[in-house]
Amino acid sequence: MKQVIFLDFDGVINSVQSATMHYEFLANYSTLCAFKEPIVGDYKASEFCPVAVSNLNYILKELPNLKVVVSSFWRRGRTIDELKEIFYYLGLPAERIISKTPTLIGSHRGEEIQKWLETQTMLEGGIRYAIVDDDTDMLEEQLPNYFHIDNYHGLLYREALKIIDHFRKEEKC
């Protein structure tokens, strides 16, 4: 059975806390220095929370067959290769990203995830999945697979353990 995590970025691997610290640091840094070039070479990754990224990396190491489907707003206007580039920059295994959910205008994230799942019916053995998101607009039938993340802190270690346990419980059934 294929294992998939639907991953949001904002509020999960970057948080209110990490973005606030990043942008306040840059504002202070730029006033102290004669030049105003970014500290981090890639603006796409500069505000990500190192703790949340580490916790995601832990999940991916513990579940070597787990694949990533990007359900984040960050998927819009970006190719899979560009999303993999962000993962690579963050030190995450970029090859684990296999897809992104479709963008359905006027739909909720849960509906976009459901549409992606429906298009995967040709896979043998089915799909076990987890949705890791700070938004709450999931479909009722998705709730047993949904892990709500507090957007202030991002993905915490205790939540990483719950996600790992979710997939391991499924393996035993």
Please describe the topology of this protein:
Blueprint: E1 2-7, H1 16-32, H2 50-62, E2 66-70, H3 80-90, E3 97-100, H4 109-119, E4 127-133, E5 146-148, H5 157-172
Parallel strand pairs: 1-2, 1-4, 2-3, 4-5
Structure description:
- This protein is an alpha/beta fold and 173 residues long.
- It has one domain (2-172): Rossmann fold (3-Layer(aba) Sandwich).
- It has helices at 16-32, 50-62, 80-90, 109-119, 157-172, and strands at 2-7, 66-70, 97-100, 127-133, 146-148.
- A five-stranded parallel β-sheet has the order 3-2-1-4-5, sandwiched between helices.
- It starts with a strand and ends with a helix.
Short structural description:
The protein is an alpha/beta fold and 173 residues long. It has five helices and five strands, in the order βααβαβαββα.
What structural keywords apply?
single chain, 173 residues, alpha/beta, Rossmann fold, 5-stranded parallel sheet, 5 helices, 5 strands, globular
Q: In whole angstroms, how far apart are the ends? A: 12 Å
* Percent of residues in helices: 25-40%
Cα shape: globular
> How many beta strands in the DSSP annotation?
5
Q: What kind of sheet is the major sheet?
A: 5 strands, parallel
Structural class: alpha/beta
Oligomerization status of the protein chains: single chain
The parts where pLDDT drops under 50 for at least 5 residues are: 25-45
What is the total domain count? 1
Q: What's the arrangement of strands in the largest beta sheet?
A: 3-2-1-4-5
Q: Give the ordered list of helices and strands.
A: EHHEHEHEEH
CATH superfamily: HAD superfamily/HAD-like
Number of helices: 5
Which architecture does the CATH hierarchy give at level 2? 3-Layer(aba) Sandwich
